[in-house]
Amino acid sequence: MENLKDKVAVVFAASGEIAGAVARSFSQHGAKVYVTARNQDAIKALAQEIKANGGRAEAVKVDALNESEIDNFLKKVVTDNGKLDVVFNGIAVDYSEMGGRPAATEATLEQFMAPMNKIVGSQFLTSRVAAKYMMQSRSEGTILLLTAAASRSKIPNLSGFSAAAAAVEGMTRVMAAEWGGEGIKVTCICSGAIMETKRISGWIESASKQYGIPVEQLVAQYKAFDILKTSPTLKQLGETAAFLASDTGIAFNSHIVDVDCGKLNVL
Fold it and tell me: Is residue 90 a contact partner of residue 13, using CB atoms and an 8 Å limit?
């Protein structure tokens, strides 16, 4: 099924595993996809993979925290295509940027603000610039943001990250209200831990070393909250993004859509 046939989609931070999965799904559903990131080698490889599988993709080096680069890039996308239908930003923060997982009493203000500056800052910039060009081109497109279940979980030593995740969700609702009159849809995907990603496996290994708990025990503790005794996959998240960006997905405008197969410990 080609839910996004002839749509023009942009994926920021496409060097990441989640954004890469979303880009692949957009392409498989018929969209022309622009994949961007600072890591040019990674996005070139992704674009080549998409084209090898029969899709349409272009790789462009863009820093998703640089407003001038974002603006110039999206302006060119609209100039070349006459519209901008879908934008997804999959930016994330590494634990090293937060100083690991320090307790709130030990974290510096810089460590606390790192997720705010990077995640919330980038989502704000890409969304506002995309909305501007969607308005100018009358695209009535879809802006998809990404957050994490930490926004509504009680996980120690993640005060900055949890605050940033909650902030992205609040920003989603405000932007949807502001831009809905222009026909622009704004929705946020809230991802549970996708066990196949390097980020989650890295977090588990880091926590195992910090607390002296076996990796297997940490995985079992997390999975104990699975309602269906299963976890989401990258492909499922990508397919969810494609659905939300489709004409049918308009029903979820302004919503925070959980992609976690159901969790007992998430509000």
Answer: yes
